[in-house]
Design goal:
Elements lengths: L9 H4 L2 E4 L15 H6 L1 H7 L3 E4 L27 H13 L3 E6 L9 H8 L11 E2 L20 E4 L4 E4 L14 H16 L4 E4 L41 H13 L5 E4 L5 H4 L12 E2 L3 H4 L4 H14 L7 E3 L8 H19 L3 E5 L19 H5 L40 H5 L5 H14 L1 H4 L2 E7 L3 E8 L2 E8 L15 E5 L7 E2 L9 E5 L1
Parallel strand pairs: 1-2, 1-11, 2-3, 3-7, 7-8, 8-9, 10-11
Antiparallel strand pairs: 4-6, 5-6, 12-13, 13-14, 14-17, 15-16, 15-17
Helix pairs in contact: 6-7, 11-14
The chain binds 1-O-alpha-D-glucopyranosyl-D-fructose (TEU) and calcium ion.
Calcium ion binds next to loops.
Length: 527
């Protein structure tokens, strides 16, 4: 549903919902979610009120990193379905006004991708230069000191051809050489393949890593690293990341999307704000939405959040559209990080900030960390470095009170939460005060008020506990007051007695009363 009056684009006023396809809905009893499963749940997504579904990778893959190791950029893995299933999904999503965003994984392929098989077959292979091959040091050490994001060296020696190849992640994920023009052309054709099929945009995996230092210089040591930090943190990511030339590549990708109408380029970027904002690109011809991950990292208190917002608003380039992410498949879930009560405040924050929100599936039912017994660990990073395992945030969506919460008729690939008999969509829908109904109400409110979806932002007050800000558009002005603490706090004088549009506690909508902000309460107020 376009908000005609605002003149904004769908990816500006819209809400993005991330589906981790293995965990959304299984339809064939193999315990792994699939495309027909997403199809089956489109009505749920439409009723929730989100505008776009970003689906983590569904391409043919040996699944060494659960799809982030792609063996063919132009097909669907049989585990998830077929191209016909995909086309049906896009058509049905579009019929409901939902956009479909694919995950594009350009930094690396699977080691079983035909390009890599060819590349490693001989130093003379026409595709040798499609990947990053180098001789080792004279003493037999790898070409440089780079560390894989998942631990261990970022280089693997290939006996047959006597050289090392670079892999920023698993050794089963060799890095493509984006300095090679043929690689670029092939990857842009893969984008067109999906754009032609009606895909509305891409979330581009580790876009800030695509180009490496031409001389592959050693990274500096990070003097502040301490265990149990991930091993990658031992080095400062300087020569392998955020290189100036990456912006040329991104501009080219963007130009491919711009061959089509109203498509969106979202970049996955973990960088400090000052660097992040450069990914909007020269003349805003880079990523339209460089993912803003501050809410995943900012300390959960009013002053830190206020600072994150203000810094971001200050650093955004003129015309650059903001966005906010509260969770993803790589990070602890919000409920695990801030607790169940503050997770409701977080939901209000996400839905009332200025900028496109991204919701991670399952956060709307308050899924938290699900403990994974050691023998059930799936994530390769969690196997290499147990403290870093991402499985606890990737567990199946819980739909109803039936067996396996309606996710599968078989054995789910990761366990459900212990409380799935109560924490599921059907049960929470029937409970007016549930976190799911809070999400529904907040989304509906955002959709109903231009002030929230596209309006201006102004910080009004912040102290140790309470954050107050204003959103406005035309004559409309709404105020959001969030209590980040677990004790009652008075509302600022100016707000006493104004009418409450919605409370995170779910019990005083549409009333005008003088009650203070209760513990862990957020309010949207209409002065
Ligand atoms: O993640 C990139 C990534 O770098 C994060 O896991 C990162 O290491 C950390 O969260 C921030 O420093 C992407 C995908 O989202 C992830 O699932 C893949 O495993 C990875 O790329 C490799 O494709
Ligand atoms: Ca399945």
């Amino acid at each position: 549903m376009a908000q005609a009056a605002s003149g904004s684009l769908w990816w500006q006023h819209g809400i993005v919902y991330q589906v981790y396809p293995r965990s959304f809905q299984d339809t064939n009893g193999d315990g792994v979610g699939d495309l027909p499963g997403i199809h089956r749940r489109l009505d749920y997504l439409a009723s929730l009120g989100v505008d776009a579904v970003w689906i983590s990778p569904i391409y043919p893959s040996p699944m060494a990193d659960f799809g982030y190791d792609v063996a063919d950029y132009c097909d669907i893995d049989p585990l998830f379905g077929t191209l016909a299933d995909f086309d049906a999904l896009v058509a049905e999503a579009h019929a409901r006004g939902l956009k479909v965003i694919l995950d594009f994984v350009p930094n690396h392929t699977s080691d079983r991708h035909p390009w890599f098989l060819d590349s490693r077959s001989s130093r003379k292979s026409a595709k040798r230069d499609w990947y990053i091959w180098r001789d080792g040091k004279p003493d037999g050490a790898p070409p440089n000191n780079w560390i894989s994001h998942f631990g261990g060296p970022a280089w693997t020696f290939d006996e047959a051809t006597g050289q090392w190849y670079l892999h920023s992640f698993l050794r089963q994920q060799p890095d493509l050489n984006w300095r090679n023009a043929d690689v670029r052309a092939a990857m842009y054709d893969a984008l067109r393949f999906w754009l032609d099929r009606g895909v509305d945009g891409f979330r581009v995996d580790v876009i800030w890593l695509l180009i490496k230092d031409e001389a592959l210089r050693d990274n500096p040591l990070n003097p502040t690293w301490q265990p149990p930090g991930a091993e990658i943190g031992k080095l400062i990511q300087f020569y392998n990341a955020d290189r100036p030339e990456v912006h040329d590549v991104i501009a080219e990708m963007r130009a491919v999307l711009d061959e089509f109408n109203e498509r969106v380029l979202i970049g996955e970027i973990y960088l400090p704000l000052e660097r992040l904002v450069t990914y909007y690109g020269k003349e805003l011809k880079g990523a339209q939405l460089p993912f803003n991950f501050q809410l995943l990292e900012t300390a959960w208190n009013a002053r830190a959040i206020a600072k994150a917002i203000e810094d971001y608003e200050r650093l955004l380039p003129s015309g650059g559209w903001p966005n906010w992410v509260l969770g993803n498949h790589d990070r602890p879930r919000i409920a695990a990080r801030v607790g169940e009560r503050q997770a409701r405040v977080a939901a209000m924050l996400l839905m009332t900030l200025r900028g496109t929100p991204t919701i991670y599936y399952g956060d709307e039912i308050g899924l938290s960390r699900v403990e994974i017994p050691p023998e059930a660990v799936q994530d390769p990073w969690g196997i290499n470095e147990p403290d870093q395992g991402r499985d606890p945030s990737r567990t199946p969506m819980q739909w109803d009170g039936g067996p396996q919460a309606g996710f599968t008729s078989g054995k789910p690939w990761l366990p459900l939460s212990d409380d799935h008999a109560a924490r599921n969509v059907a049960a929470l829908e029937a409970d007016a005060g549930s976190v799911l109904n809070l999400y529904r109400a907040l989304i509906a409110l955002r959709r109903a008020h231009l002030a929230l979806s596209v309006g201006a932002f102004r910080l009004r007050a912040v102290d140790d506990d309470v954050l107050v800000y204003e959103r406005s558009s035309g004559d409309e002005r709404l105020v959001v007051a969030l209590n980040l603490s677990s004790h009652d706090r008075p509302l600022p004088d100016a707000l006493a007695g104004v009418s409450v549009l919605i409370s995170t506690h779910g019990d005083r909508s549409g009333v005008r009363d003088g009650t203070p902000l209760r513990a862990d309460e957020g309010l949207v107020l209409k002065p």
